Amino acid sequence: MFNKILIANRGEIAVRIIRACKEMGIASVAVYSEADREAMHTRLADQAVCIGPAPSNLSYLNIPAIMAAAEITDAEAIHPGYGFLAENAEFADIVQTSGYTWIGPSPESMRIMGDKVSAKNKMREAGVPLVPGSDGAVTDLEDAKRIAHKAGYPVIIKASAGGGGRGMKVVHSDPALASAISMCQSEAAAAFGNDMVFIEKFLEEPRHIEVQVLGDTHGNIVHLFERECSMQRKNQKVLEEAPSPFVDEKTRKAICDAGVAAAAAVNYVGAGTIEFLMNPDKSFYFIEMNTRIQVEHPVTEWISGVDLIEWQIRVANGEKLAFKQSDIKMKGHAIECRINAEHPFKFTPSPGTISLYHAPGGRSVRMDSAIYSGYSIPPFYDSMIGKVITHARDRQKCIRRMQRAIDELAIIGITTNQELHRRLLANAAFQSGDFNIHFLERWLKEMNA
Question: pTM higher than 0.85, yes or no?
Answer without folding.
Answer: yes
